[in-house]
Amino acid sequence: MQSKPTQPTLAGAPVKVKILIAEDNDDIRETLRFLLAGAGYHVEEAINGEQALRALQAAAEPCIALLDLTMPRLSGMDVLRAIAEEAGALRHRFILLTARQAPLQPTDMEVLAQLDTPIVYKPFDIDDVLASVQLAEKRLQEGE
């Protein structure tokens, strides 16, 4: 049985994982940053999918990425498709944000299933966002 490394602590409290918010809407991005930083997470931001993909590829540690479905340059699904093809990037956890009520394409649903990515619909409930992030954080810590 392998023991898992203990998580570093800061003043006795566990250090929370990094969150990448990839959202082109300034108000939504700011709301998410305020919410997640207030919950103790270290937050980084990207204003388009291209920035998000670069940040995920360059991340030294696993993180949680909240990806807007509709962004300039690369959509959230484009980012997830690229990640699904990169073995090293699969260490991250993802949450897809969308205001779209129409069903996604079957191939998009396959990518979401492959990456075990939940969808949070806008307008979102703050508790739903926090619950999704906490579940993703738990899965990261358990190495799933």
Plain-language structure description:
This protein has a single domain (13-142), classed as 3-Layer(aba) Sandwich (Rossmann fold), CATH 3.40.50. Helix content is 40%, strand content 19%. It has helices at 26-38, 49-58, 76-84, 106-114, 126-142, and strands at residues 9-10, 13-14, 18-22, 42-46, 64-68, 93-98, 119-121. The strands form two sheets. It has a five-stranded parallel sheet, sandwiched between helices. The chain has a two-stranded antiparallel ribbon with strand order 1-2. The longest helix is centred in the last third of the chain and has 17 residues, at 126-142. The chain starts with 8 loop residues before the first strand and ends with a helix.
What characteristics describe this protein?
144 residues; alpha/beta; Rossmann fold; five-stranded parallel sheet; two-stranded antiparallel ribbon; 5 helices; 19% strand; disordered N terminus
Topology:
Layout: E1 9-10, E2 13-14, E3 18-22, H1 26-38, E4 42-46, H2 49-58, E5 64-68, H3 76-84, E6 93-98, H4 106-114, E7 119-121, H5 126-142
Parallel strand pairs: 3-4, 3-5, 5-6, 6-7
Antiparallel strand pairs: 1-2
Distance between the termini: 16 Å
CATH domain fold name: Rossmann fold
Give the oligomer, counting copies of the same chain as homo and different chains as hetero: single chain
| Large-scale geometry | globular
Helix-strand pattern, N to C?
EEEHEHEHEHEH
What's the number of helices? 5
Which structural class is indicated by helix and strand composition? alpha/beta
Classified by CATH, the class is Alpha Beta
**Strand content bin:** 15-25%
Main beta sheet: 5 strands, parallel
**Count of DSSP strands:** 7
